[in-house]
Design goal:
This protein is of the alpha+beta class. It has one domain. Helices cover 23% and strands 18% of the residues. It contains 1 helix and 2 strands; from the N terminus they run ββα. A two-stranded antiparallel sheet has the order 1-2. The longest helix is centred in the last third of the chain and has 15 residues. It is globular. The structure holds zinc ion.
Length: 65
Amino acid sequence: MSEKLKPCPFCGVTPDVDYELGEQNWKKWFVKCHTKYCPVDKTDWSVNKQIAIDTWNTRHKEERG
Ligand SMILES: [Zn+2]
């Protein structure tokens, strides 16, 4: 299992993995770029940190074509 995040396709920095607490204290994991005004949206939230990372990495690959 890899937790390595691909860099932001717009600004090149490594994004942050973060979570919010949802109902019943479920962790809602997402990945977002922390650069101010960067146009990249955070990922949809996932119940699992690794899924959030995979979502970011997959989306990044798709955006590169
Ligand atoms: Zn960015």
